[in-house]
Specification:
This protein is mainly beta. It is 0% helix and 48% strand.
Length: 123
C-alpha cells in the first residue's frame, strides 16, 4: 500500500520560511516524479512544484525564486523549502507521487496523494 505523509506545515508571518517534508512508503521511490500542490477554500487544487525522476524541478510562476523542491531517494522523501512567504501562499499543501513524462508506466497508474498539511501565512 502506497502512503505519502506530509509534515512541516504551520503558522508563519509574511516573509518567513517553512520546510515541508513528504515521506513515501510502499512503492519504489526512485522511478516516480513528485509534486507539491496547494488548495485554498473555494479554489481548485493548484500545482506548486514538480520534480522529475532525474531531479529536474519546475515551479508555478507564483512561487519561482521563493520555493525549492528537492528529493532524497535514499530517504524516500520529498521536500518543499518555502521562503519569503506571502499571505497568498496560505493553503493546504499536498504531496503527490506522479508519472515522469520521460518514463512509461502501467496504464492504470493514476498517482497517489498524501493527506495534506496546513500552511498559514499571516501577520
Amino acid at each position: 500500500q502506497v502512503q505519502l505523509v506530509e509534515s512541516g506545515g504551520g503558522y508563519v508571518q509574511p516573509g518567513g520560511s517553512l520546510r515541508l517534508s513528504c515521506v513515501v512508503s510502499g512503492s519504489p521511490f526512485s522511478i516516480y516524479a513528485f509534486a507539491w500542490y496547494r488548495q485554498t477554500p473555494g479554489k481548485e487544487r493548484e500545482l506548486v512544484a514538480f520534480i522529475t525522476v532525474r531531479g529536474t524541478p519546475n515551479y508555478a510562476d507564483s512561487v519561482k525564486g521563493r520555493f525549492t523542491i528537492s528529493r532524497d531517494n535514499a530517504k524516500t522523501k520529498v521536500y518543499l523549502q518555502m521562503d519569503s512567504l506571502k499571505p497568498e501562499d496560505t493553503g493546504v499543501y499536498y504531496c503527490k507521487q506522479d508519472k515522469d513524462p520521460e518514463y512509461v508506466y502501467n496504464a492504470a497508474y493514476v498517482g497517489y496523494w498524501g493527506q495534506g498539511t496546513q500552511v498559514t501565512v499571516s501577520s
